[in-house]
Amino acid sequence: MPSNDQLPIVAPALEDLAERLGAPAADIEIVSAEEVTWPDGSLGCPEPGTSYTQALVDGSKVVLRYEDRVFVYHAGDDDLPFLCASDDKDGGHEMVPPPGYNS
Fold first, then answer.
1. CA distance linking residue 41 with residue 43, whole number of Å
2. What is the pLDDT of residues 77-98, one digit of tens each?
3. Predicted pLDDT at 1
């Protein structure tokens, strides 16, 4: 099993965020990366008015930090990450550190 920062979702998520921000990937911190089981086909990022399969889905989640903003990427078992956007205008999330994270 790969270490958390080597999960298949990490590299493409870093590349995507670097492109979105116009920042070097080396300046983006990997806060956490983990394998998860999503409760349904929304992969933990449901869109209003959309129906999803009601089955458990293996996948992964990576939390990235750039400056004072945090970005959360989700993926299903195909390891294709997508940014799970928040309501914040920048698409980031308030920093809610995972257990064991020291900023």
1. 5
2. 887 899 997 655 444 554 444 4
3. 44
Residue 47's beta-bridge partner residues?
none
**Cα 58 from Cα 67, distance rounded (Å):** 30
Please spell the DSSP secondary structure of 74-102, one letter per residue: EE-TT---EE---SSTTS-B---PPTT--
Angle (nearest 5°) at CA 92 between 8 and 102 = 75
Angle at 11 between CA 46 and CA 99, to 5 degrees: 65
DSSP secondary structure letter of residue 12: H
Coil vs helix vs strand at 35: strand
Q: What is the pTM of this model?
A: 0.79
72 contacts 20 by C-beta, under 8 angstroms: no
For residue 41, what is the DSSP state?
T
